[in-house]
């Protein structure tokens, strides 16, 4: 059995486990949690539903990660998927970034709860669930317009990964910092650097 097959089996097993554990967690939060949790219960429900969707996406949309030299790409093959591959790849990247933002919201809530601030319940119920909205919007646009398929990432996929094979059925998102120009000379891809800086700042 090849290493690639082993990795695919591990990913599938972990995907099933994540769906199971998140479903159990959601059930416990909704039906077994004490009333004194207050707004925190709804924050936990929101985070659990989000992670359940993310786990489902990770399970149903097999992706390959390629990294070499100054390039990094997450690629999906339309032949292996039922849904439009470009949409799934963008959603996969988008939900990964949003998941990190959600962790931030969770820890902010716990910090404020520990401080026992006045009017805490009203503040969190109105504002806290909407805090990731701005990172959502920014991350979506960065992934779509900066990390989407472009000349540099296509060059990386053709030359570094597939050795000039066809990329017709593929969708990929990522960056390539030092692509090569027509004369074979490396140059700095500021497009990718801007995207990396923006995403790192948001996270």
TrEMBL record:
Keyword Flavoprotein assigned: no
Pfam family membership, one: 7TM_GPCR_Str
Keyword Nucleus: no
Gene Ontology cellular component terms for the protein in this record: plasma membrane
Listed GO biological process terms: olfactory behavior
Coiled-coil boundaries: none
InterPro entries xrefs: 7TM_GPCR_serpentine_rcpt_Str
Protein keywords: Membrane, Transmembrane, Transmembrane helix
Membrane-spanning intervals of the chain: 6-30, 42-61, 81-109
Superkingdom classification of source: Eukaryota
Protein name from the UniProt record: Serpentine receptor class gamma
Native species: Caenorhabditis remanei
């Amino acid at each position: 059995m090849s290493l690639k097959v082993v990795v695919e089996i591990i990913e599938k097993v972990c995907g099933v486990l994540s769906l199971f554990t998140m479903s159990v967690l959601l059930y416990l939060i909704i039906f077994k949690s004490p009333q004194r949790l207050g707004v925190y219960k709804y924050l936990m429900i929101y985070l659990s539903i989000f992670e359940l969707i993310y786990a489902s996406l990770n399970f149903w949309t097999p992706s390959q990660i390629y990294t070499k030299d100054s390039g990094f790409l997450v690629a999906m093959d339309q032949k292996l998927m039922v849904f439009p591959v470009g949409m799934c790849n963008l959603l996969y990247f988008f939900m990964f970034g949003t998941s990190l933002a959600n962790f931030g919201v969770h820890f902010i809530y716990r910090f404020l709860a520990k401080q026992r601030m006045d009017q805490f319940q009203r503040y969190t119920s109105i504002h806290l669930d909407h805090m990731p909205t701005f990172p959502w919007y920014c991350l979506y646009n960065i992934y779509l317009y900066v990390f989407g398929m472009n000349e540099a990432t296509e060059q990386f996929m053709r030359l570094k990964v597939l050795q000039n094979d066809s990329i017709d059925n593929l969708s990929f998102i990522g960056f390539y910092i030092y692509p090569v120009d027509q004369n074979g000379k490396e140059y700095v891809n500021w497009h990718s650097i801007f995207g990396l800086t923006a995403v790192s700042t948001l996270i």
